[in-house]
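Residues pack. One example:


***
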Amino acid sequence: MIAFWLTIIVLLVIGAALLIVPTMCKANPDTDTNRDAINKAYYQQRLTELTEDEAQGVIAERETMVAELQHNLLEDIPVDESVAKQTSFNRMLLLPGVLLMLVVSLGLYLHTGGLGQVMQWQQVMKEMPDLRHRADTGQLSTPEDIARFALGLRTDLLSEPANVRDWTMLGLAGLKLGNGEMALQAYEKAYQLAPNDAYIQIIYAKLLTRSNDPNDIQQASAILKDIVKTNPNNVDALSALAMNAFGRGDFNQAIAAWEKVLTLLPADANGIDVIKSSLAYAKAQLTANGSRLSVKLSLATEMAAQLPAEGSVLIAVTDGESPVPVAVKQLPLGQFPLELSLDDSNAMMPSRLLSSLKKVKIKATITSNDRADNRHIMGESDIQPFSGKETVNVTIGHIKQ
């Protein structure tokens, strides 16, 4: 700040000097000498010319012309005293001008130069250690304090742009202040610096989901799918993925994610009623517009005598290439033939849905509730094309121990 004011003073002194110094310079005495010499030479030349003209009879009144020439020469001689007085008077007039320049310059700066903001910023930087401590202990709650803290963070990040923690704190400050743009920009920077941090990934994806840009929403979906792929039981990521899919109108994925969340949360968890209502709405939309795979199970005649007294039927759907199921459904053992349907709510992972498949292969397995009976009565279909409306027939006809 001292350097700033010194700069202002130097500039004002230079401005004042530009006004005063030229008037303080004394006139060059050689100027008057040169003028007198020129006037004298001119006078002598004219006298010579007049003499020659008179000798040639060109002029008749030489004396009159000489008198006129002398009069003109006298008029060109300055009066020293009057010039000195005029010079002294002009210098005095500059003093009010210099004072006016100083007053106007300082007044304009105080009015438009943001001195108050600069002083406020300096005060914030002095308080930053205390503001950081209060933020870490959860004592930073008022909007004014949060805004001051955000100002200090932005200043510190100018000198430490790779400080991930400060970027995340700035993003949180933006969220608390309702400044979504600041929060998104801060978490975008944090994500660039720490792309594998799940906490940063989830919040950044949530902020992208709020964007009106479809590319941002797709990027959020990709980030969340990567998290779920690595950690399928991450409730925060699953919830965010469900909201992202719900906003995109992908009700299949939203249903799968929310159903997974419900299996991970306790029955009395906060917000569970909201999840259930959102899930019900998504299912209603899916019923109207979604894709389903219908399955008709039949039992080979020779297998009827092999059925356990109590058991279950597990239906697994694969893509026909990988043995890993994409969707599964389990039902208690009942009467055959049996008809059922599967949709994205039966997907094993929210990031890999039944509706994303172009072909399917179905495998049905009957198992006994008796642990001593380790038989598997099985049947599977051929690979079938799938567009979302197909019905596939499966015959259960062989036993695997």
User: Anything to note?
Assistant: The first helix runs from residue 2 to 24. Residues 81-89 have pLDDT under 50 and may be disordered. Residues 213-290 form a domain with the Serine Threonine Protein Phosphatase 5, Tetratricopeptide repeat fold (CATH 1.25.40.10).
